[in-house]
Design brief:
CATH topology of the largest domain: Immunoglobulin-like
Helix content: under 10%
Number of strands: 43
Strand content: 35-45%
Number of domains: 4
Strand order of the largest sheet: 27-36-34-30-31
CATH class of the largest domain: Mainly Beta
Largest sheet: 5 strands, mixed
Shape: globular
């Protein structure tokens, strides 16, 4: 009997040990819980009428938590005072700090913020609704929010409705109903009452539910939104197994319109003008950096020097960065330059007014004086060795690669403004049979860069060229000259290139097309002429395309302005990639309005990926780790 007892005890100990080991955690390869939490009740009840309590409790069938509650949870009508929302065990507690509005439908849209405590499975698109009146408003308005400049879906931005149709409502009054966009840029505003509305999107930086700061991104629709509904047939399929269905059940359900609103988000140009900084990195030059573009250069007056004819001025295209190169060595050798600078400045009333700053400029980097190109003038004894001093040349950056594109050009970029160039000392030779033959060319200063010069020639396919520049033919502002330059290069053959020709319909007269790489960066841009946008001599590869309706004809995309009800210039994408091979010509018809804006941009170009793809990737990684 003792032996039986010991045997039983041993078995019990083994069972307990095995159970304890199994309870430590799920071994690798176990089944993951993929079932989301289930809503089982609330106080007040979901859909309850005549509610007068600010405190709400929601209950679920398992322990839950909230992820990114401040980003994902949206309460409509919007709450000026931030509500208190917290998860505790199997419950969510909500405390609305604003007073409840009478006869109003309230919705708390959790999106996918509610997840189970173990695996983080989200309860997607969960919305809790109640009313302080005698009815629940059930209308919905939905659509897509895109970045106006590149049709990128925008996630997490607020979209709201105003029953007040005055333009000023958007800038002074909180929205009546709100929602947030999901990872696809989609939004759905719920609990909407019948009526007419204006719809807006807002990046609400100061959280007052109104467009009150110029730095806030926004979008608006030119047309009124009138919500409606209709009954549509819906089919549910009951499957017998994975390939055979048993029954199809059809039933009518309400469908809410409009469901295809497209909003294009933009930021207005912030035209505040002020001096960001001034600096003197080296003795020969000083610079001013402004916050915005300007129509004219600032006025400079020397306080301890004469500013007349003292500088070579190098300005950026929009005059927001200006470099002053000092001509006189006596002046740039001064330790401190004192000057007054007059420019237009944006005051507190948002008006441009003249402003004068007094500025002291001290060089940060004092370089050693360059060795003179000629023999030093210091006295030497006749019997001293006549050693040659090393010549310091001006470092000219020459762009002339060994293999050159037929549309390209040779360029020379200088470290300082150029004092003189002897073009007769520049030679371009074409190889004819075995001999070099000099050919004429065009040499001109770059229109955007003061210190860059371009050599232009109508290159011939497959031909070899040789460029030579004699020494001391290019002098900089500070006396240095170039060393001899000699470079040979060959032009690529025509068969190495591909061509893409777009036949465009629906575009404005001033439209232009940008050819894009796989990272959505511009490769080349051409104007649409007579319905055609032609791209010659392309490298074989994968390309996208974007068309801009250039309303003002300035050659760039321009943003909108709400005060003038001016929408940003329209942007359209060719809805697929093109991949021409060498020696190919692709002719593509492109009706820019054939596909809705939210479906035009190829998914490969979108940086904002849908959450479903991220979840799929996460699950694949998790499955891989279990193997």
């Amino acid at each position: 009997m003792k032996r039986s007892f010991r045997k039983a005890v041993s078995i019990i100990i083994i069972i307990i040990t095995l159970y304890s080991c199994a309870s430590i955690g799920r071994p690798d390869g176990g089944i993951y819980d993929e079932i989301p939490p289930r809503f089982i009740g609330s106080k007040p009840e979901a859909g309850e009428l005549n509610v007068d309590k600010n405190k709400i409790t929601l209950e679920f069938d398992e322990f839950i938590k909230l992820e990114k509650a401040s980003e994902k949870i949206t309460i409509s009508p919007p709450q000026v005072q931030m509500p208190e929302i917290r998860a505790s065990g199997k419950k969510i507690h909500i405390n609305l700090l604003d007073s409840l509005k009478p006869n109003t439908t309230y919705t708390v849209d959790f999106s996918d913020a509610i997840v189970d405590n173990n695996e983080g499975n989200p309860l997607g698109n969960f919305t809790y609704t109640f009313s302080t009146g005698e009815r629940i408003d059930t209308m919905e308005v939905s659509g897509t929010l895109l970045e106006a400049s590149n049709l990128e879906p925008i996630k997490g931005m607020m979209v709201g409705l105003h029953a007040n149709l005055e333009d000023s409502a958007f800038t002074t009054t909180p929205f009546d109903r709100v929602a947030r966009t999901d990872s696809r840029g989609k939004f759905r505003i719920k609990g909407v009452a019948p009526g007419s509305y204006r719809i807006y999107a807002l990046q609400d930086v100061d959280q007052n539910f109104a467009f009150s700061q110029k730095s806030e991104a926004l979008a608006f629709n030119d047309s009124l939104v009138i919500p409606s509904s209709e009954l549509r047939m819906h089919h549910d399929t009951i499957w017998r197994d994975s390939i055979t269905y048993d029954t199809i059940i059809s039933h009518m359900h309400p469908y809410y319109l409009p469901d295809d609103i497209i909003l294009r988000s933009f930021k207005e140009d912030v035209n505040n003008q002020y001096l960001i900084k001034s600096e003197r990195l080296n003795p020969e030059m000083f610079s001013f950096y402004f916050a915005n573009k300007a129509d004219t250069l600032p006025t400079l007056k020397g306080l301890n020097f004469d500013e007349k004819e003292a500088f070579v001025i190098e300005s950026s295209l929009h005059r927001d960065t200006i470099h002053y190169w000092i001509k006189d060595s006596l002046l740039y050798k001064q330790d401190t330059l004192k000057l007054s600078l007059q420019y237009l400045y944006t005051d507190t009333a948002n008006q441009l007014v003249p402003r004068i700053d007094t500025i002291r400029l001290v060089p940060k980097n004092v370089k050693k004086q360059p060795v003179e190109s000629k023999r030093s003038k210091r006295n030497k004894k006749d019997d001293e060795d006549d050693e040659k001093e090393q010549t310091v040349f001006m470092q000219v950056v020459t762009k002339a690669p060994p293999t050159m594109n037929v549309y390209d050009y040779v360029s020379f970029t200088f470290p300082e403004p150029v004092a003189s160039i002897d073009t007769s000392a520049i030679h371009l030779n074409l190889k004819v049979d075995t001999l070099w033959q000099e050919v004429p060319f065009v040499f001109e200063q770059d229109s955007l860069n003061l210190r860059k010069y371009n050599l232009l020639y109508d290159w011939d396919f497959t031909q070899e060229y040789e460029l030579t520049v004699d020494s001391a033919s290019m002098y900089g502002l500070y006396g240095l000259h170039n060393d001899k330059i000699k470079q040979s290069f060959k032009i690529r053959s025509e068969e190495e290139y591909a061509n893409i020709f777009f036949n465009v319909t629906g575009a404005d007269p001033n439209a232009f097309v940008e050819l894009l790489d796989t990272q959505d960066k511009v490769v080349r841009s051409v104007k649409v002429r007579n319905g055609s946008a032609d791209f010659y001599f392309l490298n074989p590869g994968k390309y996208g395309a974007r068309l801009i309706n250039d309303t003002n004809g300035n050659g760039i995309w321009d943003t909108g302005l709400y005060e003038e009800k001016r929408q940003p210039e329209e942007v359209f994408y060719y809805p697929q990639f093109l991949e021409p091979k060498a020696n190919w010509e692709l002719n593509q018809d492109w009706n820019i309005n054939a596909v809705s804006l939210d479906k035009q941009k190829p998914s490969e170009l979108k940086k904002q990926k849908p959450d479903e793809e991220k979840k799929r990737s996460k699950n694949e990684t998790r499955t891989s780790n279990r193997k």
